[in-house]
Design a protein that fits this description.
This is ABC transporter. This protein has two domains: 218 residues, Rossmann fold; 73 residues, ACT domain (Alpha-Beta Plaits). The protein has eleven helices and 14 strands. The chain has a six-stranded mixed β-sheet with strand order 6-7-8-3-9-10, with helices on both faces. Strands 2-1-4-5 form a four-stranded antiparallel β-sheet, with helices on one face. It has a four-stranded antiparallel β-sheet with strand order 12-13-11-14, covered by helices on one side. The chain is α/β, with parallel strands linked by helices. It is elongated. Helix 3 packs across helix 4, helix 4 packs across helix 5 and helix 8 packs across helix 11. The relative contact order is 0.13. It is 36% helix and 27% strand. It binds adenosine-5'-triphosphate (ATP). The site of adenosine-5'-triphosphate has 11 residues, from strand 2 and helix 1. The site of adenosine-5'-triphosphate (ATP) has 11 residues, from strand 2 and helix 1.
Length: 329
């Protein structure tokens, strides 16, 4: 395979142990170019360790990593140029002004002097930092400092950006700005972000990787994860009619449908029901038709999608259960 076509990142059987602790336990994944990958896991799962290895800041104990076809171990200098990295709690020089810092970092990253000025203007605009370009970094709020970190990571236009918890400690308005900023990189750069904020990941990422105790417990698009981890979908129905005939009426549409009453009928005879199916295709229209034909009056019918939070909890719970079983043996 030509380097030009190689995936942005390929990780094969990566392991990292710190004296007695296995922080990363045989993980493998591949990330196509131009995609945004969300890296999820509870505290101590091994996210930061993996990110530090990918960026060449921490050696792995074993395994292989290649970045755009370059081996991390034998071509470390090249790999570092391909990645913009924003570490967790990114340390920034307190006494420098924003534009001075970006200029300094740009020169270190070997951005030619001629193009550095216009590029700094571009990233200041992109990160909504123009107003603070002459401010001392130490006097900036947390949200602005995070954005200075992102501006620095994208400054030299590397093909890959890795950000460890870019929205941690930000208020909802600042989170929105950072989210839009990350989304604006889609297609232009390959991005890996770790986050605890699941709706963030759901809205921004093309692909999600969930790790727990150093192992990958689920990976795929948010949609694939819903299907593979949760494996069913719910419909919420509010209807009036003979409850003993509801199961039969719904069964005409989907034999596997499970029906559960939620609460008692109200004064007008309407009652809420939870319908659970293993089928992925939309059933709404068919259900409305069969319920109508069976004489039910329907006030509402809606499909409720499991959230990424449901997926995350189910996937990590499942892996805790497996570990508990291993310990019993
Ligand atoms: N320098 C170190 N020395 C020893 N153990 C470490 C070191 N750094 C991390 N660990 C351990 O490795 C494991 C993974 O830690 P890591 O920081 O990678 O997790 P994380 O998923 O990024 O967690 P968080 O979300 O809390 O930042 C943890 O058990 C942690 O205690």
């Amino acid at each position: 395979m030509e380097r030009g076509e190689a995936p942005a990142i390929e990780v094969h059987d990566l392991v990292k142990t710190y004296a007695g602790t296995t922080a990363v336990d045989h993980i493998s994944f591949s990330l196509p170019r131009g995609e945004i990958l969300g890296f999820l896991g509870p505290n101590g799962a091994g996210k930061s360790t993996t990110m530090r290895i990918l960026t060449g800041y921490l050696p792995a104990s074993s395994g292989r990593v290649s970045v755009c076809g370059h081996s991390l171990t034998s071509q470390l200098a090249e790999v570092k140029k391909l990645i913009g990295y924003m570490p967790e709690n990114n340390p920034l020089p307190e006494d420098m002004r924003v534009h001075e810092y970006l200029y300094f970092r740009g020169r270190l990253k070997e951005v030619p002097r001629r193009t550095l000025g216009p590029r700094i203007d571009e990233v200041l605009e992109l990160c909504d930092l123009k107003r603070v370009r002459h401010k001392i970094i130490g006097k900036l709020s947390k949200g602005f400092r995070q954005r200075v970190g992102i501006a620095e990571a994208i400054l030299a236009e590397p093909p890959i950006i890795i950000m460890d918890e870019p929205t941690i400690g930000l208020d909802p308005h600042q989170i929105l700005i950072v989210r839009d900023l990350i989304a604006s990189l889609r297609g232009r750069m390959t991005v890996i972000i770790s986050s605890h904020i699941l709706p963030e990941i759901e809205m921004t990422c093309d692909r999600v990787l969930i790790i727990n105790q150093g192992r990958i417990v689920a990976q795929g698009t948010p949609e694939e994860l819903r299907r593979s981890v949760i494996g069913h979908s719910h419909y919420e129905l509010e209807a009036a009619g003979d409850p003993s005939r509801l199961s039969e009426a719904c069964g005409a549409c989907d034999e596997s449908l499970q029906i559960e009453a939620r609460g008692e009928p109200d004064a007008t005879g309407f009652r809420r029901w939870l319908l659970t199916t293993k089928r992925e295709d939309p059933l709404g229209e068919g259900l409305l038709k069969t319920l109508g034909e069976a004489g039910f009056r329907v006030r509402s019918l809606s499909r409720s999608q499991p959230t990424l939070e449901d997926v995350f909890l189910a996937a990590t719970r499942r892996s805790w259960d497996v570990t508990a079983e291993d310990l019993k043996r």
